[in-house]
Amino acid sequence: MSTAFGFRDAELRSRRFRALNRVGELSVRAGRPLPSLEPESIIAAARKRAGSREMGSDSYLEPLTQYLTSVEGEAELTTFGRFAVRGMLVSALANRIELHAWATEHPEIRQESIEAPWVIVGLPRTGTSLLSILLGLDPTVRTPLQWEAAKPIPPPGLSDASLDPRIAAYQKQVDGLLQLNPPFAAMHPTGAMLAQECVAFFTYDVRTLGIETQALVPSYGRWLEAADMTPAYEQHRTALQALQAAQPTERWVLKTPNHLWCLPDLLAAYPDARIIWTHRDPGPVVTSLASLVNTLQRVFTDRRDPRPTAEEWKHKAHTAINGGMAFDDEVAADWCVHLQYQDLVADPVRAVTRIYESFDAEVSPLHERRMTAWMRERPQAAEGRHVYDPADFGWSYGELAEEFAPYRDRYRITADTG
């Protein structure tokens, strides 16, 4: 393997993680792998952390069971990986409990109207993070911040948000992640005060592609493709309502590729959404995505062959693209704005201006100045370049171009090799 896996095994350099994995191997041989990934154990831990048993509904139970069954049967996790997955799920369900309790105690948040949000739905690695940051620089809008998405309750108010201890706590987690997995810094913007994918709110119902980045779980993936996403969007809306009640905003900027997999559910939840679909040559998209997800999973699994994870996420890209094109065939032509990645990176401010114009809106002079300042301070390669090679996964750009030709031709996507 060359570029995609040119980093050393971060978890194996740590004596603590090596010892943890050795203990875990002994527990597997004894027939009692540690820690427990039984649904009942994770639910109990979430209830204990949140200090309540009320989950609002049991909509999370089937996806939780599906995911954990797939983890046990397919993910090949190390003990460290098992702790990571368990911690992720306990945190997600504890957030669900706390959100439900807050909404019950503050029923007025249900009156908050989430009006005409900007929603970015492109595949991963198509400029969606940059676009969400630039849109979020509009003084009249708001993006969920990474620390808020990690622990939104109680929602931060206007007077004390900048002093919230959760900011430092989350940044400490980020610093730990980057120390464990240094290549990730060049792959995805990470920091407590940066815009976060709203996919974090889907995790409260355990219905999201986001949790598939932690482990290879193809059977859960097939289940999710057919799942009703309405319960996940209910959690999503309630989280936004809680945050908006504490810090009012005219409009939200929401971004996650997960929306592209479930466009009818998105528009059922937010019928007046201002949707932007970002497009880029699928060759570098799926190669970069395969590199990203393998890098994330590398510290959690014994599997060393990157191809199964790469093929799984290439399948997901096909599913999203085909579903998006089918949806595009069925609805009015103005349901979204199509944005080419090349146009975004060539002139980001102009790209955002054209998006606003498409929705009969105007970029304010202050917004334009803020975008210009951001691009000056944080150029695209500020954290280094993410280098990837399709050969690492048994592919070539020529083969990928042919495989995704219907999508490239339909949207006149320029060839790109990363």
Stretches where pLDDT is under 50 for at least 5 consecutive residues are 1-13
What's the pLDDT, averaged over the residues?
A: 89
Specify the CATH homologous superfamily: P-loop containing nucleotide triphosphate hydrolases
Domains, number: 1
Please list the strands of the largest sheet in the order they lie side by side. 2-3-1-4-5
Major β-sheet profile: 5 strands, parallel
User: What is the percentage of strand-forming residues?
Assistant: 5-15%
Molecular shape: globular
Question: Gap between N and C termini, in Å?
Answer: 18 Å
Gyration radius over CA? 21 Å
Instruction: Please give the CATH architecture.
Output: 3-Layer(aba) Sandwich
Order of helices and strands: HHHHHEHEHHHHEHEHHEHHHHH
Helix share bin: 40-55%
CATH level-3 fold name? Rossmann fold
CATH first level: Alpha Beta
Specify the number of helices. 18
* SS class: mainly alpha
Strand elements, count:
5
Q: Please, could you describe this protein's structure?
A:
This protein is mainly alpha-helical. It has a single domain (3-158, 165-410), classed as Rossmann fold, CATH 3.40.50.300. Helices cover 53% and strands 5% of the residues. It is built from 18 helices and five strands. Strands 2-3-1-4-5 form a five-stranded parallel β-sheet. α3 (39-50) crosses α5, α5 (79-105) crosses α10 (230-246) and α12 crosses α13. The longest helix is centred in the N-terminal third of the chain and has 27 residues, at 79-105. It starts with 9 loop residues before the first helix and ends in an 8-residue tail after the last helix. Residues 1-13 have low confidence and may be disordered.
